[in-house]
Design brief:
Order of helices and strands: EEEHEHEHEHEHEEE
Shape: globular
Radius of gyration: 16 Å
Oligomer: single chain
Number of helices: 5
Helix content: 10-25%
Number of domains: 1
Largest sheet: 7 strands, mixed
Distance between the termini: 38 Å
CATH class: Alpha Beta
Length: about 220
């Protein structure tokens, strides 16, 4: 599998309905470019309008623009100076969007060598020293010990693998999250609401076509 994590926005109050269920697991793909590449555009912040290029592969599915717009509207007052983990990074779109909007640092984790290399190339092209890339399996990464816990984590694993519950449990059990940390979760809408560890709250939940996306928060306790 080529990547670790693939297959106008108003602020919501409460959790939105997610009952619509497509017949099959979604297979959204980025539009291909010559040379087998894909691209995604950063939609806000310092790098608004700049493009990320990444190796095009059958299971690659960057988070759609309107989903990213909604997510970062949800997080707009929570970004400045924060440390983020983009655990199944793929194209790096979520992590780069966060960097563009003022977070202090992003750790990208991507197991596919070509995709990880593309993220590193983009960081150099943008002249950013606030991002680091680990070319590593996400769960192997989580078996390590965090240097410091994270404020925000992005989780967009392959839909067919059903890895969200496992990833959440390992983030919680491994000490990867600060009290009050936010966790973004993306999955096929047919899978419904994600299973969360004890001590997490599901703050928001929406759907866009075949994509179900959610924002959870760890309780603000030590």
């Amino acid at each position: 599998m080529p990547r670790n994590n693939r297959t106008g926005s108003r602020r919501n109050k409460g959790v939105a309905d997610t009952t619509t269920t497509p017949a099959t697991t979604p297979t959204r793909h980025a539009a291909p470019l010559p040379g087998g590449r894909g691209e995604v555009r950063i939609i806000g912040g310092e790098w608004r309008g700049r493009k990320l290029h990444f190796p095009q592969a059958g299971s690659l599915r960057p988070t759609p623009d309107r989903v990213r717009e909604t997510l970062f509207n949800w997080l707009q007052f929570e970004l400045a100076g924060k440390h983020c983990l983009d655990l199944f990074a793929g194209s790096g779109a979520l992590g780069f969007e966060a960097l563009s909007r003022g977070v202090a640092a992003v750790q990208f984790v991507e197991r596919d060598p070509a995709a990880a290399r593309a993220i590193g190339d983009a960081l150099r092209t943008f002249g950013s020293e606030r991002g680091r890339v680990a070319q590593q399996d996400a769960f192997a990464f989580l078996r390590g010990k965090p240097a410091t816990p994270y404020d925000i984590v992005f989780l967009d694993p392959p839909y067919a693998e059903h890895w969200l519950g496992r990833a959440c449990a390992e983030l919680e059990g491994g000490g990867w999250l600060k009290p009050g940390a936010f966790v973004y979760l993306e999955d096929a809408v047919s899978h419904g609401a994600p299973e969360l560890p004890e001590g997490w709250d599901l703050l928001r939940s929406k759907k866009a076509g075949d994509v179900g996306y959610h924002l959870a928060r760890r309780h603000n306790t030590t």
